[in-house]
Design goal:
The protein has about 260 residues and is α/β, with parallel strands linked by helices. Helices cover about 35% and strands about 15% of the residues. The strands form three sheets. Strands 1-3-2-6-11-9-10 form a seven-stranded mixed beta sheet, with helices on both faces. Strands 4-5 form a two-stranded antiparallel sheet. Strand 9, helix 4 and strand 10 form a beta-alpha-beta unit. Helix 4 crosses helix 6. The protein is globular. The mean pLDDT is about 95.
Length: about 260
């Protein structure tokens, strides 16, 4: 079994504030665009690797600022979604994409099962194992857990402009997401998508269905249009906004269920 990651390459999990007191667990499936040295550039140009097809532009610093402000544990995945998408079930075509939007990914063509298994074993599994371990720990310790999956989206997709500033995503369970959606829509001059620009489903998503729904814990996925979080000032502003909204959404949710 040949390792994918060399000993001197970063691990597939970045952890912030592991002892944070916040009930929120922040996760970022597409926080980085790193590619393992053994895979070269996957046959994709550097200009393409800087685009949204490779990562969620701007979301990593937003999550860092949120973790600091909330004193929240955050778990981030620093390798490119072009290596393996950590928010896709293994059977989804986009798990190891041969083409992303209109960009071919030659390094993902004609892979052996062993090559795909190495990406799952060394990148996908450690990241999701870290999320599972943290949620297991909170369950053992009877600590609250609110799962917040942070993403960004491109302002134009296949030539079509997207009007939303942000989106609130969920699958079958919208109980916590509904509070977040309402509060974000009360922000000044905000256009907020309800399950836009994406739908969450068991066929196309992993993090929310597996870690949120299957456990029955409060959860939400947040999308922010990435042209709104390209500068540090904007990243900090969105982090403050999301911390304010999530904190109030939790208060309203607890109040509605009579939780003190």
């Amino acid at each position: 079994m040949i390792p994918l990651l060399a000993p001197d390459e970063p691990p597939a999990v970045v952890t912030l504030r592991p002892d944070g007191a916040s009930p929120f667990l922040l996760v970022a499936d597409h926080a980085g665009r790193r590619i393992p040295r053994a895979l070269g550039d996957l046959g994709v140009s550097e200009s393409e690797l800087r685009r949204h097809i490779a990562w969620d532009v701007g979301i990593e610093p937003v999550v860092r600022f949120m973790a600091d402000q909330l004193d929240a544990h955050a778990i981030l995945q620093p390798y490119s979604r072009l290596v393996i998408d950590c928010n896709r079930p293994f059977l989804a075509e986009s798990s190891v994409a041969k083409i992303s939007e209109s960009t071919p990914v030659p390094g993902n063509v004609k892979l052996t099962e062993d090559q795909i298994a190495a990406r799952r074993r060394e990148i996908f599994a450690p990241y999701h194992d870290a999320i599972t371990a943290e949620l297991d720990r909170r369950q053992r310790e009877s600590r609250p857990a609110f799962l917040v999956a942070m993403h960004s989206f491109t302002p134009v997709y296949k030539g079509v402009s997207r009007p939303w500033h942000s989106g609130v995503l969920y699958n079958r369970d919208s109980r916590f997401a509904a509070f977040v959606l309402r509060l974000l829509r009360e922000e000044d001059e905000m256009t907020v998508g309800d399950n836009e620009p994406y739908l969450v489903s068991d066929d196309t998503d992993y993090t929310i269905p597996v870690h949120g729904e299957q456990r029955g814990i409060p959860h939400v996925a947040i999308e922010i249009r990435h042209d709104l979080i390209e500068t540090e000032a904007d990243q900090r502003a969105w982090a403050r906004r999301m911390c304010r909204v999530l904190t109030e959404a939790k208060r309203l949710r607890d109040q509605s269920y009579g939780i003190r």
